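It is worth pausing here to work through a concrete case rather than discussing structure prediction in the abstract. The textbook approach is simple: state the sequence, then state the predicted structure, then interpret. We follow exactly that order.
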Amino acid sequence: MNHIVTVQDAVTAFAPWMEPTDAELLAIESEMPAILADVDLLDAQIVTLDRTPTELDERRIRRARRRVLAARRDLVNRTAGASLPGGAA
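Step two, the predicted structure:
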């Protein structure tokens, strides 16, 4: 006798109640500058995968790394400032 198994989890995996909440969407939006900086860095690195990096490629990667660090720094400063009550020094 063969048993018939349903795939209930796969059917309900995309139920409307599983959408991201407003708080999650706001968190993603606040992290978007850091995400885009990471994408730019990856783009710069991908270009150099199949060839020897030129001086221009190296400058592009360095600038992208600086943008990533600056975006992450800004994100940490925003989130740290938002989580400290009373403007602690």
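Step three, interpretation. DSSP finds three helices and no strands in the chain. The mean pLDDT is 85.
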